[in-house]
Write a structure and sequence with these properties.
- The chain is an alpha/beta fold.
- It has one domain: Isopropylmalate Dehydrogenase, CATH 3.40.718.
- It is 33% helix and 21% strand.
- It contains 9 helices and 12 strands.
- The strands form 3 sheets. It has an 8-stranded mixed sheet, sandwiched between helices. The protein has a two-stranded antiparallel sheet with strand order 2-3. It has a two-stranded antiparallel ribbon with strand order 6-7.
- α4 packs across α5 and α8 packs antiparallel against α9.
- Keywords: Magnesium, Manganese, Metal-binding, NAD, Oxidoreductase.
- This is Tartrate dehydrogenase/decarboxylase-like protein.
- Its cofactor is Mg(2+); Mn(2+).
- Belongs to the isocitrate and isopropylmalate dehydrogenases family.
């Protein structure tokens, strides 16, 4: 790959440190600056808080609180980028990497190779609702899910296209339309309409609670999965854990039209409790880098990076696995 093929243009100081200084995660003109790029690498976000010791019967429990609440960082930073940039398709691939032990029996390297596609622009995280009568006994809070035909249709088409591009051509549509009779019924109807455009894809529909069971008991029946914002958020964490560790999984926030930059990030959090200990597992960041390269059309470079990750992952005897992957730490350095 020529040195200029993929060029890192700029690092932006968009972080909790900035929020604590200015009251805003993204400074003025920040989004305009990000628009100039083809891809964004997003690091884990958070802010360490002061530890609090609690006595729990005969034991002492150490709890660390963040001094920036998670809902502030989510809405002030991540969603503040995803939503205006129309990154409506969140893609989370998982598979068992060499040297990684799945908690499922008989699952080895290369197994659990699947993709979860998450609606990333509306649904349960649409930001609609509110609170009233604060502090009173009748204090009320509402969280309103928004499902639009347009939003569902574009996500379903992307999901079917993804399933069609994979060897097995299987798509599972996750729903909860038995209990949620409005938004989820529309979700099902649009999925059925879009399915007619992709006769080569085998599709089945499954309730989200049943899907959790299927992922554990019959994982071999799954390949590409599409679900709502909330459902896929939960299922993708389960998928990563079943593949060995949530600490090694990447995620992509895509604008498939490429009118806006897409954003790529490790799925894991900030893990301030292990800062400076040399035990963090960097696989998710490198895998995320491979996803960026693939998105930018640098397939050979992406494949080379993943092969390097797999070689290091396989070398468990070296003690180079992060503690979340069964090694004794040491990172990859």
């Amino acid at each position: 790959m020529p040195p200029s093929a993929v060029e890192a243009k700029k690092a932006y100081s968009i972080a909790s440190k900035t929020y604590k200084k200015t009251g805003k995660y993204i400074p003025g003109g920040g989004l305009e600056g990000l628009k100039k790029h083809d891809a964004i690498l997003f690091g884990a976000v958070g802010a360490p808080g002061k530890p609090v010791l609690l006595s729990l019967r005969m034991r002492t429990l150490l709890i660390k609180f963040t001094d920036v609440p998670d809902h502030i960082s989510l809405w002030g930073l991540r969603l503040a980028i995803c939503q205006p940039f129309q990154q409506y398709a969140n893609v989370r691939p998982t598979r068992v990497l060499p040297g990684t032990q799945s908690p499922l029996r008989n699952c080895g390297t290369g197994d659990l190779d699947r993709v979860i596609i998450r609606e990333n622009s509306e649904g349960e995280y649409a930001g609609q609702g509110g609170r009233s009568h604060r502090g009173q006994d009748w204090e009320t809070a509402t969280e309103v899910s928004i499902f639009t035909r347009h939003g569902i249709r574009r996500l379903m088409r992307f999901a079917f296209q993804t399933a069609r591009s994979r060897p097995r051509k299987l798509l599972a549509v996750v729903t909860k339309s038995n209990a949620q009779r409005n938004g989820m019924v529309l979700w099902d109807e649009v999925a059925a309409e879009v399915a007619k455009e992709f006769p080569e894809v085998t599709v089945d529909k499954m309730l989200v609670d049943a899907m959790t069971t299927r992922m554990v008991l019959k994982p071999e029946t799954l390949d590409t999965i599409v679900a709502t914002n909330l459902h896929a958020d939960i299922l993708s964490d389960l998928a990563a854990a079943l593949a060995g560790s949530i600490g090694i999984a990447p995620t992509s926030n895509l604008d498939p039209t490429r009118e806006h930059p897409s954003m790529f990030e490790p799925i894991h959090g900030s893990a301030f409790d292990i800062v400076g200990k040399g035990v963090a597992n960097p696989v998710a960041t490198f895998w995320t880098g491979a996803e960026i390269l693939a998105w930018l059309g640098e397939g050979d470079a992406a494949a080379a990076l993943m092969k390097s990750v797999e070689r290091r992952s396989l070398d468990g005897r070296s003690g180079r696995h992060g503690v979340d992957k069964g090694g004794d730490g040491g990172g990859c350095g």
